[in-house]
Design brief:
The protein is of the alpha/beta class. The protein has 15 helices and twelve strands.
Length: about 400
């Protein structure tokens, strides 16, 4: 997949006692957010303690927002939870009090000003960065062998000198072909969960991130059929013949949180599409020849990744692979090419599963050596002209 996409359907606890404000909030943001409506700060605190925390809490000052902040900031497990306070009028005094109580932002209760979605997406990205930094400092400390680093610098420096005319030509063609920057930068997670900017020639339209929301059914790594949509009630609520005990508001409709979590658990970490409509005219050629990845030679030269290793992942993919079963894939060096690329991608096969990719990454992390790297490099050249249009 190309790019570092924003997460969709962030989980929000909305704490408000005024019904009219709640209705208006659901109308404005119900199609973009996964919303749980709560009536009191006590209810929100109890839910946070006993379930997976939300991406943010939005609570009105009149519903006990300041008391909620006092409680939530006093606990180590919730002190970093994003909290937005809503008020009838924004004044310097209110802003000062919210800052003193370590609130994250303030909005009018009708959200007539400001960009709520931009703030929520920022909070989400901030949470990802903090989680990855904590993991990298406490779990893995990857040491790159001297022979590997020396080979990377020598090979990459020579390649950049030889390929400089091609790099310039491709940059010109991209600029002529479509609007947007020549080089695409995305946050990636490499060896030891290190976060860095990965460079690639841009091969997608500038609105690619928005298009992804409607393309889930085309994902090559989707498990099984997975064609079931979220239903209104879970089996447990239907059996009790009661209203939903854990309501969420998703895409403007009420759904059951239990049902949503079951569907969410079936989703896969990797995403890739055949005949991707987001790709530009020249982008398809650049991808099929892997020319789009040449700017990553600069990543190798500065030490972000190695020539051979496990592909660095976008943040939202990497955070799904932090269990003991999968974490070892980050114990190996990140790389421009690697074992899974030459094992199946180069043969044009379409049946590589997410699990197979992860296991090949783990195998490389455990066994990599100078001889293995040389073999992978030699196998990479015939794999460049791949038969799969991805």
């Amino acid at each position: 997949m190309n790019g570092d996409l924003q997460p969709t359907h962030l989980k929000i606890y909305y704490v408000e006692q005024e019904l009219s404000n709640t209705v208006e909030f659901l109308k404005k943001f119900g199609h973009e957010l996964q919303i749980k409506v709560l009536n009191s700060p006590e209810e929100a605190i109890d839910l946070i303690k006993n379930s997976y925390p939300p991406d943010a809490v939005i609570i009105s000052k009149g519903t006990g927002g300041f008391q909620f902040l006092d409680t939530i900031r006093s606990e180590s497990w919730s002190k970093n939870l994003p909290v937005i306070i809503t008020v009838n009028e924004i004044t310097p005094g209110v802003i000062k009090e919210i800052i003193n109580k370590k609130g994250d932002d303030v909005f009018l209760r009708d959200f007539s000003t400001g960009d709520l979605m931009a703030r929520l997406n920022y909070f989400s990205q901030r949470r990802h960065y903090v989680a990855m930094k904590q993991t990298s400092s406490s779990v893995l400390d990857v040491k790159i062998p001297l022979w590997k680093r020396a080979f990377d610098v020598l090979a990459t420096g020579s390649a950049l000198l030889l390929l400089s005319p091609l790099l310039i030509l491709v940059a010109i063609l991209i600029k002529i072909d479509s609007k947007g920057p020549v080089v695409y930068k995305s946050k990636r997670v490499g060896a030891g969960y290190k976060i860095f900017d990965l460079y690639k020639f841009r091969t997608m339209r500038t609105d690619a991130d928005q298009l992804i929301k409607n393309m889930g059914s085309l994902n090559m790594y989707t498990k099984g059929d997975n064609k079931n949509k979220i239903s209104g009630l879970c089996a447990e609520c239907r059996a009790k013949e009661v209203d939903c005990e854990l309501p969420l508001y998703l895409d403007g409709k009420q759904v059951c949180e239990r049902t949503y979590l079951v569907e969410k658990s079936e989703k896969v970490a990797f995403m890739k599409f055949q005949n991707d409509p987001r790709i530009t005219r020249i982008g398809g050629f650049l991808r099929n020849t892997s020319i789009d990845e040449l700017p990553q030679l600069f990543n190798i030269l500065i030490g972000d990744i190695s020539l051979v290793g496990n592909r660095p992942l976008p943040l939202y993919e990497a955070e799904k692979l932090t269990t003991d079963e999968y974490i070892y894939r980050f114990a190996g060096p990140g790389g421009l090419t690697g074992l899974w690329q030459v094992t199946k991608r180069g043969k044009g096969k379409k049946d590589m599963t997410e699990e197979e990719r992860i296991q090949l990454d783990i195998e490389y992390a455990k066994k990599f050596s100078f001889g293995m790297d040389v073999q992978i490099i030699l196998k990479t050249f015939p794999a460049l002209l791949q038969s799969e249009n991805v």
